[in-house]
Amino acid sequence: MNNIIEKLKKATIFQNLDDKQLNYLISISYIKSYKKDNIIFYKGDTPNYMYLLLDGSINIYKHNIRGNEVILKSINNISLIAELANLEEVPYPSNCITKEDSKILVIDYKKFKDYFLSNPEFLFLFVKSLTQQLMKLEEILSRHIALNANAKVAKYIYENEEKFNKYSKVNIAKILNITPETLSRIIKKFKNEGVLVVNNGKLTINSFIKIREYFID
Hints:
Helix content: 40-55%
Number of strands: 10
Strand content: 15-25%
Largest sheet: 4 strands, antiparallel
CATH architecture of the largest domain: Sandwich
Order of helices and strands: HHEEEEEEHEEHHHHHHEEH
Radius of gyration: 19 Å
Low-confidence stretches: none
CATH class of the largest domain: Mainly Beta
Strand order of the largest sheet: 1-8-3-6
Distance between the termini: 51 Å
């Protein structure tokens, strides 16, 4: 139990809860283990439970009109998953899948709502967390609409250099809503232009000025 409490305290939304509150949260929850590529929920499912990622990583995604996956969000730290659907009490608007073996705390949302969201201070933090998530989603949607393929890749590498080397190129292509072939061509182009270089088997930014020119007017 102590291990779970320590993990809960690492979640921004729960870090100010006292031991009594944390113990209650645990009492209305259970831990579920998922294998890689397991579905946590589908678009349209009713959010009777609230999910907190404890270990592993997940993708929240939709399909575009061509049937291709578009990743809206990747989570690889201790964090709530799609909590806006819980608060609004609407069906999940997207799908959620594990990227690797993962452990998730499954929380009884009705009991959570009755106990925690009646507390104005906690409700404020909860809504603040949701606002931050919506801002991130707006940024993702803006990236898909406003940026061309070169700009998408350049901006992603500039902001996520470590993740770029950690994630598979197929996964990154889904995040950027481009094909893996397009991603490979752009990476080759950036290397030829000296924007990127390979150091110890990893792609690194060689020119921050040049890479920024692709996505900043």
